[in-house]
């Protein structure tokens, strides 16, 4: 028998609503599947000449997932991005991130510093819609294949450039030799300045701290793909291409936007705040007996619910209003945080999850609207995330069995009813598609590549 | 273009920030109905507004979007939440109570004449209110309907309440951020789990618009924010290949050695990462340590990334950085070509000359609020650049302007809707009302065609 779905919202209580949603959920699971569906970008050609830069590779991957014919162009010895991999772990010389992003792409080799290969490159550009490059600004131009030369060959070309400081301004020129890396882009765009222990904690834990994944490179990759599609939308109605410029040193600050406004309105930088938060309190992951759980209060009623669940109603009087709990008086917030830390530490993850869920369901059923909706979740490791049934129902992890690279999973996201993104194949061999691409686009085969 | 012109003089003209307002808008003519709150939905709509879409933001009368009042440290600016403007600039603000039958009808009327509709309530709620995809697609099959949530619209966890923080925890992001040796894990601040997926959502909406341009077909998009974070981790592939979780590694990026955040002689923080053989060569030259290049264990990337070798390189780097001032290191990075930057804070980002010239930080002069510094577009387009047109507006500010112009409602009908509480305005709470110095009675848009 099918398990009844649990609801936590008063809007979903009615039997009729639940029946409708149950049916709709089943329909969705079917219509969001990519099998037999068309692709949004199936008439689009993307060239990726990004070099030692995953932001470019990611942007190309996203367009490839949406159906673009994506040709990754590498020098004969391969893109150094192949080697960027945790602890050097690789499969047959290919690093894990490169393998994971090797979706739906064609791999060819061209030496852009060679005259004849540049002619081949120009032939490809003449037919392409989008070009992605990550060389230092001015390098492609100096080879005669920058935006101002290529836009003459193909006025419809969308030329996407990704660099630390972008392709214009005096600083971009002066700092043009600085290469792009994720960690440095995180730091230059204001992310690590906000992560780390409180200022009075021991060094180096009160130092700026990085996000543990390629936050900057993924933000920039998505922004570049988004910019390319904005330009493509314009091209489809006017025939005109344009240049799209992304600066990775804008990654975090332009994505979340707060740093600039905080700097202007308050005139002083925010200190690192440990697991505290500037806008909500409590809002973080707290250590319990056997792991970490989220404790997050948005409205005062959610905070009251949390106090009841944790058996600390005595704190209510002093901390009743959000404005009591969010303050730049760190010493004050630390007190509340400590109380919550101590209360949470008394329980196991499962005990807390059950308490929260019982409370939330009861509160959703209640006619009184002040009960709050306390929310929580366990902090999961990637291993635990992989076991979660929900993601398998949603087909987030695609299993790959490759004779050369073995068995592994790669994640994908974004459900669309007509043109869902998908992983069609994973490949990563240097020059694997030389023959196919050279033939299809009538390139000159000088010698065996 | 002048032949032989310096490349940067060419690009500076191409992206001339003083010409932005004169250039065309790529999404002009696209109408977006945003029935959403907080950050994930509103920021998705904001990105579309930035590039020219007409975004109509629907809020609950008298209450409004919760973020209007939820400012950092409880501090306001001209009776508004200063951080809210970035998420909600260049939009039209209307109020409709969806739970009243007449309110639902109004939303459906707007949905009928919209190209894109965005909602981000708990999964199923929009359907329960009668404004979900099954209902809207019947009256407007060309619509691109976007449901944004933490876990998505189907699957066993769909009804779980969720937010940025929960998406960060459920995706594995928190477990890999922090210091294992002191048992500390941190969230990514500033609600990155909302903002970053909102850019992903905008990208999918554009793909759907491009598909509709070709075929005339609309579609339904279901984007779970936790899934966008999962998509951004190579850790799952790592786990299935090695059998091990990568865990968290503090400030060391395990894909680059050396890498980390280091303290300089003058007490500043420098982030530094060496990704390729070429960069390592130049870095060793800059440190005057070319002897390292001869050692087998540092010979290539894979060797340098082995934990024991990486540790040693980090130690060498730490010592070298601590013997130099930040400016010296940046100058060497500039000269030799390795990746390094000072760790930037809020004030540096706000006042950075480069960002102001680039247009990624903008000092905007608004008719209602005056000058505010906020972030500009994340991506610069030479022919159709994004821009800020106006800052946020008080609750229900565009009611008359939108309902009269687009739905042809009369002043009498509006008054009746006001009386019944179907539409409404602010009360005295900060975040909802206009700045105290502003005379709203003289505002011609707020009082549009009101005799």
Question: Can you give a write-up of this model?
Answer:
The complex is a heterodimer of chains A (449) and B (451). Chain A has 449 residues and is of the alpha/beta class. Chain A folds into three domains: 1-27, no CATH class; 45-257 and 393-440, Rossmann fold (3-Layer(aba) Sandwich), CATH 3.40.50.10540; 283-380, formyl-coa transferase, domain 3, CATH 3.30.1540. Chain A is built from 18 helices and 13 strands. The mean pLDDT of chain A is 94. The longest helix of chain B has 24 residues, at 192-215. Chain B is 37% helix and 14% strand. In chain B, the strands form four sheets. Chain B has a six-stranded parallel sheet with strand order 3-2-1-4-5-8, sandwiched between helices. In chain B, strands 9-10-11 form a three-stranded antiparallel sheet, with helices on one face. A two-stranded antiparallel sheet of chain B has the order 6-7. Chain B folds into two domains: 13-231 and 379-442, 3-Layer(aba) Sandwich (Rossmann fold); 259-347, 2-Layer Sandwich (formyl-coa transferase, domain 3), CATH 3.30.1540. Chain B is α/β, with parallel strands linked by helices and 451 residues long. The mean pLDDT of chain B is 97. Chain B is globular and about 85 Å long. At the A-B interface, helix 1, strand 3, helix 3, helix 7 and helix 8 of A face helix 1, helix 3, helix 5, helix 7 and strand 6 of B. Strand 13 (415-416) of chain A pairs antiparallel with strand 8 of chain B, so a sheet runs across the interface.
Summarize the structure.
Chain A has helices at residues 15-31, 54-65, 96-100, 115-127, 139-142, 147-153, 170-174, 182-188, 215-238, 251-256, 258-266, 300-310, 322-325, 330-344, 349-365, 382-387, 389-393, 434-440, and strands spanning 45-48, 69-74, 90-91, 94-95, 105-109, 130-133, 158-163, 242-247, 283-288, 291-296, 397-402, 406-411, 415-416.
What attributes characterize this protein structure?
heterodimer; A: 449 residues; alpha/beta; Rossmann fold; formyl-coa transferase, domain 3; 3 domains; six-stranded parallel beta sheet; two-stranded antiparallel ribbon; 18 helices; 13 strands; 39% helix; globular; B: 451 residues; 2 domains
């Amino acid at each position: 028998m099918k398990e009844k779905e649990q609801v936590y919202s008063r809007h979903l209580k009615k039997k009729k609503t639940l029946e409708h949603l149950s049916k709709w959920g089943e329909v969705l699971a079917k219509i969001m599947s990519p099998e037999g569906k068309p692709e949004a970008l199936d008439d689009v050609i993307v060239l990726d000449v990004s070099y030692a830069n995953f932001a470019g590779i990611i942007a190309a991957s996203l367009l490839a997932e949406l159906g673009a014919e994506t040709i990754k162009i590498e020098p004969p010895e391969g893109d150094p991005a192949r080697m960027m991999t945790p602890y050097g772990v690789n499969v047959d010389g290919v690093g894990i991130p490169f393998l994971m992003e090797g979706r739906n792409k064609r791999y060819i080799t061209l030496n852009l510093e060679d005259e004849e290969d540049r002619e081949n490159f120009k032939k490809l550009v003449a037919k392409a819609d989008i070009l992605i490059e990550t060389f230092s600004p001015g390098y492609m131009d100096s080879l005669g294949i920058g935006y101002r030369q290529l836009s003459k060959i193909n006025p419809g070309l969308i030329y996407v450039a990704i660099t630390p400081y972008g392709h214009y301004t005096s600083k971009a020129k002066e700092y043009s030799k600085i290469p792009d890396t994720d960690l440095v882009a995180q730091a230059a765009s204001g992310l690590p300045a906000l992560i780390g222990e409180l200022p009075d904690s021991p060094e180096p834990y009160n130092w700026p701290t990085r996000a543990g994944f390629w936050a900057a490179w993924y933000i920039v990759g998505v922004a570049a793909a988004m910019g390319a599609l904005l330009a493509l939308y314009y091209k489809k109605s006017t025939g005109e291409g344009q240049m799209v410029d992304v600066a990775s040193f804008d990654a975090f600050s332009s994505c979340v936007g707060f740093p600039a406004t905080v700097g202007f309105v308050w005139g002083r930088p925010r200190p690192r705040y440990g697991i505290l938060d500037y806008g909500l309190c409590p809002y973080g992951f707290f250590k319990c007996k056997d792991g970490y759980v989220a404790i997050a209060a948005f409205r005062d009623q959610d905070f009251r619910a949390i106090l009841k669940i944790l058996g600390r109603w005595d704190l209510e009087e002093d901390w009743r209003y959000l404005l009591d709990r969010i303050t730049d008086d760190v010493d004050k917030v630390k007190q509340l945080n400590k109380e919550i830390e101590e209360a949470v530490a008394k329980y196991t993850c499962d005990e807390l999850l059950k308490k929260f869920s019982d409370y939330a369901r009861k509160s959703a059923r209640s006619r009184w609207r002040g009960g709050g909706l306390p929310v929580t979740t366990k902090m999961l490791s990637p291993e635990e995330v992989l076991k979660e049934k929900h993601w398998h129902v949603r087909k987030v992890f695609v299993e790959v069995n490759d004779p050369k690279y073995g068995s592994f999973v790669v994640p994908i996201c974004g459900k669309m009813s007509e043109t869902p993104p998908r992983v069609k194949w994973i490949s990563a061999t240097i020059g694997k598609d030389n023959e196919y691409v050279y033939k299809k686009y009538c390139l000159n085969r000088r010698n065996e590549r | 273009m002048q032949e032989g012109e310096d490349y940067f003089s060419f690009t500076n003209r191409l992206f001339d920030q003083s010409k932005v307002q004169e250039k065309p808008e790529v999404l002009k003519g696209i109408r977006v109905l945003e029935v959403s709150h907080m950050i994930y939905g509103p920021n998705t709509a904001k990105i579309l507004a930035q590039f020219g879409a007409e975004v109509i933001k629907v809020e609950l009368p008298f209450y409004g979007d919760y973020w209007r009042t939820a400012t950092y440290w409880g501090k306001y600016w001209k009776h508004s939440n200063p951080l809210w403007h970035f998420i909600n600039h260049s939009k039209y603000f209307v109020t409709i109570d969806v739970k009243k039958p007449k309110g639902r009808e109004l939303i459906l009327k707007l949905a009928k004449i919209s190209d894109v509709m965005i909602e981000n309530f708990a999964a199923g709620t929009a359907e329960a209110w009668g404004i979900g995809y099954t209902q809207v697609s019947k009256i407007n099959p060309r619509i691109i309907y976007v449901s944004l949530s933490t876990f998505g619209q189907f699957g066993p966890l769909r009804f779980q309440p969720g937010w940025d923080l929960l998406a960060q925890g459920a995706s594995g992001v928190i477990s890999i951020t922090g210091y294992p040796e002191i048992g500390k894990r941190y969230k990514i601040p500033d609600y990155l789990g909302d903002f970053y997926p909102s850019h992903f959502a905008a990208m999918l909406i554009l793909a759907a618009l491009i598909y509709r341009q070709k075929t005339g077909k609309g579609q339904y998009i279901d984007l779970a924010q936790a899934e966008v974070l999962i998509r951004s981790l190579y850790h799952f592939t790592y786990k299935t290949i090695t059998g091990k979780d990568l865990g968290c590694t503090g400030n060391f990026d395990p894909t680059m050695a050396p890498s980390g955040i280091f303290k300089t002689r003058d007490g500043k923080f420098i982030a530094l990462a060496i990704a390729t053989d070429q960069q390592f060569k130049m870095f060793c030259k800059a440190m005057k340590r070319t002897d390292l290049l001869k050692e087998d264990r540092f010979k290539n990337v894979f060797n340098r990334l082995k934990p024991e070798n990486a540790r040693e390189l980090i130690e060498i780097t730490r010592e070298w950085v601590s013997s130099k001032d930040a400016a010296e290191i940046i100058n060497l990075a500039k000269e030799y070509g390795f990746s390094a930057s000072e760790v930037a804070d809020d004030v540096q980002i706000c006042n950075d000359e480069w960002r102001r010239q680039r247009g990624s930080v903008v000092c905007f002069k608004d008719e209602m609020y005056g000058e505010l510094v906020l972030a500009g577009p994340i991506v610069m387009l030479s022919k159709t650049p994004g821009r800020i047109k106006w800052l946020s507006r008080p609750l229900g500010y565009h009611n008359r302007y939108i309902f009269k112009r687009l739905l042809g409602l009369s002043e009498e009908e509006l008054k009746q809707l006001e009386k019944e509480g179907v539409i409404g305005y602010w009360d005295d709470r900060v975040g909802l009302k206009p700045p105290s110095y502003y005379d709203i009675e003289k505002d011609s848009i707020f009082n549009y065609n009101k005799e």
